[in-house]
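Listing S7. Sequence submitted for prediction.
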Amino acid sequence: MSDYIVSARKYRPQTFDTLVGQSNISTTLKNAIKNDQLAQAFLFCGSRGVGKTSTARILAKTINCSNRTDKLEACGECDSCKSFDEGQSLNVYELDAASNNSVDDIRALIDQVRVAPQLGDYKVYIIDEVHMLSTAAFNAFLKTLEEPPKHAIFILATTEKHKIIPTILSRCQIFDFNRIQISDIADHLQKISVNEGIDAESEGLHLIAQKADGALRDALSIFDQIVSFTGKTLTYQSVIENLNVLDYDYYFRLVDYALQEDITNSLLLYHEIVNHGFDGHQFIVGLSEHYRNLLVGKNPKTLNLLEVGDSIKEKYKEQAGTIDAKHIMRALGVISNADTTYKSAKNQRLLVELTLMQLCSIKSEQEKKKP
């Protein structure tokens, strides 16, 4: 049997300091531990893969540690930390509410709450996907959540806060987890690449981070998939091939053709894109994002809003210098119109081609309007 462990598990944060992109929550929880002001119930909300369960486990481990460091982190060496790391801690109880959502499951949990901890100060109950509990199970849980024993702390985690009844929300300290920034994900992937001896291009890592849509776990899964394909070298090109993403270069070339009023090459380039298996609507959305990035790239103050690698950022800055803001706004209007009418169009390819022809005509259109 292989000893391989996926990156999402191997590099799961073990301390508050190793949490990615949630520094405000880490600081709040550390201060609560420092001042001995821990709430009896926490609700961690946020989209998938942002660190809710990891934070819950870190909190559970830290508050039971008998020899916390100066930075209020678990020592990792005391009996409580060792039993937690080995998965044998009797002080931490995890319940998956998706598969244990009945009143009987909650009653069994309430019976356990009465038992004091064997080692350490607290028993921590982590209930994942808590929004999946039935209404009856929520109601059975209310009294215990409001007045639990001193040794009990509940940490509820959910991706769908709106599904939780108000009486539960009012009994919890609520923490909203942010989607993780692209730059934070890319930096984290870079550290993992160094640890694993993988030669990774920063542009490729940025593209993975963009595709993950703010979820670090998704980014790590994509990273593993591409490393399996490429071996110890992860390039921008290999990421594009694996994720079926349209290369930035196509958009840069199309804008150049539009500025040169070169309809022929624009249509030939789109034909090449279609032959690579890309959807016309996906292309239109990507093109509108490209023009938006050009608008952002025109001003040095807004240049940092571009969530791309440094070399791509320089390309945007360079191309933005060759095109005026009025041209970009007119182009965005043309593309937006194509985006809204794409699904209802009978001949979708023709719609995209007409859009490209209009983009190539903007320059002469503006010159005619000049007095």
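Caption to Listing S7: primary sequence and predicted structure tokens for the chain studied. The chain is about 55% helix and 10% strand. The two ends are 77 Å apart (CA to CA).
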